[in-house]
Amino acid sequence: xxxxxxxxxxxxxxxxxxxxxxxxxxxxxxxxxxxxxxxxxxxxxxxxxxxxxxxxxxxxxxxxxxxxxxxxxxxxxxxxxxxxxxxxxxxxxxxxxxxxxxxxxxxxxxxxxxxxxxxxxxxxxxxxxxxxxxxxxxxxxxxxxxxxxxxxxxxxxxxxxxxxxxxxxxxxxxxxxxxxxxxxxxxxxxxxxxxxxxxxxxxxxxxxxxxxxxxxxxxxxxxxxxxxxxxxxxxxxxxxxxxxxxxxxxxxxxxxxxxxxxxxxxxxxxxxxxxxxxxxxxxxxxxxxxxxxxxxxxxxxxxxxxxxxxxxxxxxxxxxxxxxxxx
Length: 327
What we know:
six-stranded mixed β-sheet, alpha/beta, nine-stranded mixed β-sheet
């Protein structure tokens, strides 16, 4: 998979073989979308508005930080959101039975992103392979919830939606612009025109796109979260940094912007960490993302520090979504 991803951001002779498969993938994807939108395949309408936060490409684009940001915006405006997500188990499968994520859950049983969102304690977080069933279970358990946010739910057409937000990685954009497996796209770029909002995480925006930045300047100790320090505390220390996210370089670049010179150690997205992955004997401190942290807690040491980041987006996006979901 890693070797294949290398070709997603370039064109090579390999694409002569992969392009026909991309055409087939695109045709099947378009057919599936048409069947749901025409009502031939049944979809579920919930009794509350549903906002989808997703992407058209494979890999992390910043959906989870944006979901948390939107949940906070809704809370500030008097709404009571709930979040549904896919939630992969340690064997790579999705949970067949809806499950409410607790901060006591293990990341390899509920997924790193759902656990991270649950730890923020903004609202209930439920996971399940069947998104409508997970959302219905959430609403049954939390009748106060009056809006559902679906994290990474753009292609889950069985769940009807009131608004769609597509998140784009501003650095990588759409790679070579081809559909899977020749490129990184789940759906063609033209799909963006059907979304209610396009949010670009870093990089330049075009047209009506909303700019998003991930801001964070302080670190908390993984074993003692009450210990919080600024980047200046690490300036003269020997640092190693790990990142098992969709685009690890984004984290390493952020550390550089904070003035930190850390030895980077990139891992695949959703990597299952082991103690040997953070066994850097010469390091004074090991820096990581929150998404990494939820999978390293069991074997962390006092040297593990976590950079908390929060999405910063124009208030105009909040207003747009409120207009879409308000009766």
